[in-house]
C-alpha cells in the first residue's frame, strides 16, 4: 500500500481557537493541526497555549500581539468559548432569581468575547486582505429559552455581530460566518435533548463543517448563520425527555 497523506488545506495557516481546552474547541484545535495549521488555543484552563479570559480585552490584545510578533499573521479565528452561565456557575434557578454576577459573566464570555476577539484581529486581517472569523452560537439563540433567557439572548446577539463583521470585512476579503449547533455530545446529558433526527451531533460533525467554512471552498460564503441542529429549530417536538 502507498502512503496516505492527510488533507493539508490549512498548511501555513495560523488559527486561534477560543475555548480550546474542551468540547468543540478542543476538537477543532486537534483537527486544524492535523490538516497543517498552527493551532493556537485560548482558554482559562492550564495547558492552553495562551491563558486568556475572553471577557478581558487587555488579555486578548496582549496575546494577539504576541502571536503576530512570533508568527506574523493570523488567518482564522474561531470563537468557541462560552456556555450556559447558570450551568457553568452552578446556579440552578430561574432567570428572575439569577445573580447579576452570573449574568455579567455570561455576557462577558458569550458575547463580549467574540466581539473583543474580532476587535483585536479584524484590522490585521483587513490589512492582509485575507481572513475568516467564525462565531459559534447555540440553538437557544434561535428558538429562545425560558430556562436560559440570558444565554439565549447572548447567543442571539452573535447574529448581528456576524452580519456586521461580514459587511465590514467584505471589501478586504475577510469573511465572517456563524455556526449554530443543537445538542452536541460534549457531555452525556446532551443525548437527552431531543431532535427530529432522534440524536445529538457528534463533536466531529460540528468541527468538520466549521473547517469547511474556513476553507477556500467556502470563499463565497459570508454573513450567514448555519444551523447544525438535527432539525430542532423546525419545531414539532412534543416534549423534552
Task: Describe the protein in words.
This protein is an alpha/beta fold and about 240 residues long. The chain has one domain (about 15-230): Rossmann fold. The protein has seven helices and seven strands; from the N terminus they run E-H-E-E-H-E-H-H-E-H-H-E-H-E. It has helices at about 25-35, 55-70, 85-90, 100-130, 140-145, 150-170, 205-215; strands spanning about 15-20, 40-45, 50, 75-80, 130-135, 175-180, 225-230. Strands 3-2-1-4-5-6-7 form a seven-stranded parallel β-sheet, sandwiched between helices. Helix 7 (about 205-215) links the parallel strand 6 (about 175-180) and strand 7 (about 225-230). Helix 1 (about 25-35) packs across helix 7. The protein is globular and about 50 Å long. Residues about 1-5 have low confidence and may be disordered.
Q: Which percent bin holds the helix content?
A: 40-55%
The top level CATH class name: Alpha Beta
- What overall form do the CA principal axes indicate? globular
Distance between the termini: 48 Å
How many separate helices? 7
Q: What's the average pLDDT?
A: 95
Find the count of extended strands (DSSP E, 2+ residues).
Answer: 7
- Read across the widest sheet, the strand sequence of neighbours is 3-2-1-4-5-6-7
Tally the structural domains: 1
Q: Could you give the order of the helices and strands?
A: EHEEHEHHEHHEHE
Query: What quaternary form is this?
Result: single chain
Q: Low-confidence parts lasting 5 or more residues at pLDDT below 50?
A: 1-5
CATH topology: Rossmann fold
The radius of gyration over CA amounts to 18 Å
CATH superfamily: NAD(P)-binding Rossmann-like Domain
Estimated share of beta-strand residues: 5-15%
Main beta-sheet annotation: 7 strands, parallel
